Amino acid sequence: MPYSVTTTQLPDVLLLTPRVFGDHRGFFYESFNQRDFEEATGVNARFVQDNHSRSSRGVLRGLHYQTQQAQGKLVRVTAGEVFDVAVDIRKDSPDFGRWTGHILCAEQFQQLWIPPGFAHGFLVLSDHAEFLYKTTDYYAPESERSLYWNDPDVAIDWPAVADVLLSEKDTESRALRLKDI
Ligand SMILES: Cc1cn([C@H]2C[C@H](O)[C@@H](COP(=O)(O)OP(=O)(O)O[C@H]3O[C@@H](C)C(=O)[C@@H](O)[C@H]3O)O2)c(=O)[nH]c1=O
Q: Is this complex scored with an ipTM above 0.95?
């Protein structure tokens, strides 16, 4: 099986470790294979968009979700290291408001599957990080929302960084609280 899958603190969020072939030239691996992904996870997803961002140390992007066209995301890091977080915001879920966080780094090749219905974000722990992800629906800016990264009702245990750098929409005054979503 080219992926090994482990569960996380949230039953529907999965950590995937692909099989990597290293040799004297470097490495090769299949960063995505639809058939193997389905077989390993039991998830029947159709990915329609690939995204790539680069960020510097202390950048925190998130916690983002879309009220329409909710996106499932298969995320990975190809340079540097991040702390990646998913929060269950499905109103009918017994895990509503609970989070899971994982270090993703280029050297480990791990990927996180975050189903639709979760808010997602990450904090960059290295000088820079390149973050790549596939999504199961298209970007819908009018329905995009940000859950405040430091909402005490979610209480994410973020690794300490000197300065957290946010976009305007992710700041305390603009982002939503768990109780308001
Ligand atoms: C997310 C996104 C942004 N954009 C544009 C809008 C904007 O001008 C510029 C930067 O967008 P943002 O500030 O929203 O980028 P960013 O803060 O990196 O947003 C992303 O954060 C992570 C945590 C996620 O989970 C993603 O789904 C997405 O919300 O790129 C697109 O054209 N397509 C997209 O899919």
A: yes
* Cα atoms in the 13 Å half-sphere on the side-chain side of 138: 2
Separation of CA 175 and ligand 1 centre (Å)? 15
Instruction: Assess whether pLDDT exceeds 70 at residue 1.
Output: no
133 belongs to the catalytic site: yes
Predicted model pTM: 0.98
167 lines ligand 1 (CB under 6 A): yes
Catalytic residue among 3, 65, 133, 148: 133
CATH match for 3-180 among 3.40.50.2300, 2.60.40.1640, 3.30.565.10, 2.60.120.10:
2.60.120.10
Atom of ligand 1 nearest to the CA of 138: 35
Answer yes or no: 64 catalytic: yes
Instruction: Tell me whether the omega of the peptide bond preceding residue 63 falls within 30 degrees of 0, making it cis.
Output: yes
3-state secondary structure at position 39? helix
Interval 105-156: pLDDT, tens: 999 999 999 999 999 999 999 999 999 999 999 999 999 999 999 999 999 9
